[in-house]
Design brief:
The protein has two domains: 41-235, Bactericidal permeability-increasing protein, domain 1; 244-503, Super Roll (Bactericidal permeability-increasing protein, domain 2). The longest helix has 46 residues, at 194-239. With 513 residues, the protein is of the alpha+beta class. The two termini are 24 Å apart. The protein is 31% helix and 42% strand. The chain is elongated. It has helices spanning 2-20, 41-61, 194-239, 301-313, 323-330, 336-346, 440-472, 504-512; strands at residues 35-40, 67-73, 77-100, 106-126, 132-156, 159-181, 241-242, 245-248, 256-257, 261-266, 269-271, 295-300, 318-322, 354-360, 365-369, 372-385, 393-411, 414-431, 479-488, 491-499. A hairpin with a 2-residue loop joins strand 15 (365-369) and strand 16. It has a six-stranded antiparallel β-sheet. Residues 38-275 form the Lipid-binding serum glycoprotein N-terminal domain.
């Protein structure tokens, strides 16, 4: 009965949390939606396969209370009894099914959960003629149980919360086995044998165990469901954060459950120091996403712009090139014009004694279009040479407005950025070997160099940086199949199939239990 009291207390606390932590949304929640995650039924089925570990953990970690009571027996008087040290062994799950109920819940049916419950039955009775006996018998109960869990997704403290309190257990088998009488007689008497005990206590133990299991296992499942929701939220929050730059993934509306998918909508505002991000004109509509793949992400153009602005403010949009990479930039052709430009810029200094620095002078402007993601920014390029025995010299400085259209893909656990169309315009130019700036061949060569090797080198560097960042968040641990990055006017869609890393839920259980 202590378990029942604890469940009741837990239910009251859960109700209070729901009341005090309820989320409030405006009349048009989609208008402030920057990120959408849609998980279709095939993904839910895959996740359901993994939840078997969570259900097993719920049974193993349920804290079964000691149960005591008494009943009257003819000729023996009152019999006091107690069940202690209840434990679960040999747990297995035969089948698990999941169904999405539109605008209601995620129904999980766990069929034929077999387990052996072990414990100790303590009993004593005071009969006629003041006979007093106290005994202890070990017992085992073979069980077969079906488990029905209806999980509701809601919003608490601006994040997804799972309520699995709607939980039912159906018992198909409860077979009691007594291991023998280990009783200690306080007065000389002939003790009743295990067969008599089994007849007396089978119904009582079965009834009591049903109550205890319903109380403790369902409470543990509800606890683990909420912890799993928090675990997934923390994984997502960590994935979209790097040092001081992070995305606010607070919910923009209540989670949505349809017959073929479940969907969450997030604000996606960028948080960085004093940078203020506001968004209220989202283009999202549920009709923009289909149901043919396992997982979909919808991202607003606004998010990409805000992330680029934060990266600019954090002075991350810089690149240093030297040595062989610098040589590869300038030796795109063997012509007189190329040799003349290299001589004028480097003045006989080797590439190993020279450094090119590239950085963004203005916040990049990003526009997502059907043909790709268009990035526009004013970029500075500075080449410094370090002649042996001489003072360092800034040999070349130029500013260019660059507009490039990029198509993105993901393959072999790497991000691939492919520049389709690039346009450049000189904003400033200064070369120490050409102070009059009259040598047009120099500019023409630099223009060609930037388009042919310069922009691809910068984009390649961004590829490596973003791939490394995503892998540091564990993306490479997922088996992602046939990913597609689709751009439309004002937003992009990532759609893919996947499988979970083997250790993901194990990590969750180790951290939680």
């Amino acid at each position: 009965w202590a378990g029942m009291m604890r469940l009741g207390t837990f239910g009251i606390l859960l109700a209070l949390v729901r009341t005090t932590a309820a989320c409030e949304f405006g009349p048009l929640p989609y208008s402030v939606t920057g990120i959408v995650c849609r998980m279709t039924k095939p993904a839910a089925l895959l996740l359901n396969q993994e939840t078997a570990q969570v259900i097993q953990a719920a049974f193993r970690n349920a804290k079964f209370p000691n149960v005591t009571g008494e009943r009257s027996v003819r000729f023996l008087g009152k019999v006091a009894y107690g069940l202690t040290n209840i434990q679960v062994n040999n747990l297995s799950i035969e089948q698990s099914e999941v169904e999405l109920k539109e605008n209601d819940a995620i129904d999980i049916a766990i069929k034929n959960v077999t387990a052996v419950f072990k414990g100790t039955l303590n009993y004593g009775y005071a009969g006629v003629w003041f006979l007093q006996l106290f005994h202890s018998v070990d017992f085992e109960i073979e069980s077969s149980i079906d488990l029905q869990i209806n999980i509701k997704l809601m919003c608490q403290e601006d994040q997804v919360a799972a309520d699995a309190s709607d939980c039912y257990l159906t018992f198909h088998k409860l077979a009691l086995h007594l291991q023998g009488d280990k009783g200690l007689s306080l007065q000389s008497c002939r003790a009743a044998g295990p067969g008599w005990l089994k007849q007396l206590f089978t119904d009582f133990i079965a009834f009591t165990l049903k109550l205890v299991l319903k109380s403790e296992v369902c409470e543990e499942i509800n606890f683990l469901a909420q912890m799993l929701a928090n675990f997934i939220h923390d994984l997502a929050a960590n994935f979209v954060q790097d040092e001081d730059i992070k995305l606010d993934i607070s919910l923009a509306s209540v989670p949505l459950i349809k017959a073929n998918y479940l969907e969450t909508h997030h604000k996606g505002l960028v948080r960085y120091e004093n940078y203020s991000d506001v968004f209220s004109d989202s283009l999202f509509s549920p009709t923009l996403l289909s149901e043919s793949r396992m997982l979909y992400f919808w991202l607003s153009e606004h998010i990409l712009n805000s992330l680029a602005s934060a990266a600019f403010l954090d002075e991350r949009l810089t690149l240093t090139i030297f040595g062989e990479k610098l040589q590869a930039l300038f030796e795109i052709e063997e012509t007189e014009t190329q040799r003349k430009a290299v001589q004028m810029i480097f003045q006989g200094t080797s590439y190993n004694d020279s450094v090119a620095k590239v950085w963004s002078l203005t916040r990049p402007q990003i526009s997502v279009q059907p043909e790709g993601t268009v990035v526009k920014s004013v970029v500075a390029v500075e080449i410094s040479i370090f002649p042996p025995g001489k003072e360092p010299l800034v040999a070349l400085y130029m500013e260019k407005e660059i507009t490039v259209t990029i198509q993105a893909a993901y393959a072999e656990k790497k991000l691939i950025l492919h520049p389709l169309d690039s346009r450049t315009e000189f904003k400033a130019f200064k070369c120490t070997a050409d102070p009059s700036r009259n040598d047009k061949s120099m500019r023409n060569f630099l223009q060609k160099m930037i388009l042919v090797t310069g922009i691809p080198e910068v984009i390649s560097s961004i590829e490596l940086t973003l791939t490394s960042l995503m892998n540091s968040k564990g993306l490479n641990l997922f088996e992602i199949r046939s990913p597609e990055i689709i751009t439309r006017k004002g937003y992009l869609i990532v759609q893919l199939d996947f499988s979970f890393p083997d250790h993901l839920l194990l990590d969750f259980l180790e951290k939680t239990l």
